[in-house]
Structures are given as structure tokens and as C-alpha cells.
Amino acid sequence: MKKLLQKRLKNEKGLTLVELLAVIVILGIIAAIAVPAIGGIIENTRVKAQFSDGQNVLAAANIYFVENPGAQPVSIAELVSQNYLDNAGSFGKDNDGKVTYTKGGNTLSATTVGDKTTVTFANATNEAISKADAKSGNGDLVKINKK
């Protein structure tokens, strides 16, 4: 029995301390690369959600202008209070932003407040919001301010 145990112990192979440290170092390097990349993806997604809120406001304003011809501009708070929007999203409850009716496409002037960014829409059309980049915005029409 003793010989059998000794024979099995000789055949046992495991990781040495150096091999274990090498694995830990490699995992640390991978984590150091992955964490900032994931953080950037999350922040870009939040900014895109703010863009989406802007497009929702413009869509609600389109319906408002169809039902109320000649009434302009309309505030975001008004769209919420008259049930054209369920909520103002990242624009906040008491946002004084407004949508102005234009034949070439309604324009939005308002500011959204996110966790780490503030997006300002300055007479931005739906097309301008669609073309905006989550990192740099779209020139003077859509500005992104990082906190």
C-alpha cells in the first residue's frame, strides 16, 4: 500500500509558484485593459440614450404640431403635461427646453443631464441628432460636456 501511494505522489503534477504568479500577472494585464474599455462603452451608451430622449421629444412635438397647427414653440414640460410624452427622460421634469416648428424639420433647444455628461441641443433637428457622435457631438447643434 505504501509503495502504491509513493508511486501516485511521484506522478502528481501541479502548478509551481512561478507558474501561478505568471497566470495572476496575465489576468491583471487583461483586467487593466478591459476595465477602461468597458467604462467607455457604458458612457457612450448613456450619451446615446440622451440622444434618443431628444429624438423622442421631437417625435412628440411633431404630433403636438399636427394637432395644434400654428402653436409654437412648445416646451418639453408642456409636452409632458399634455401627455404627448410619458416623461421627459434625461431632460428632467421642469426642463424649459423648447421645440420650434419649421418646415425643414422641427428644432430642439434643450439640455439633458446624465451621470457624467451633459448634452446640449441648440436648434438641433432629428437629422442632426442622428448624425451626432457619442464622443464629440455634432458641432454647434449637439454639444457634449463631460463632467
UniProtKB/TrEMBL annotation:
Subcellular location: Cell surface
Predominant cellular place of this UniProt entry's protein: other
Residue intervals passing through the bilayer: 20-42
Organism domain of life: Bacteria
Key words of the record: Competence, Membrane, Transmembrane, Transmembrane helix
Pfam families: N_methyl
Family matches, as NCBIfam families: IV_pilin_GFxxxE
Protein name as catalogued: Prepilin-type N-terminal cleavage/methylation domain-containing protein
Organism (species): Sporosarcina koreensis
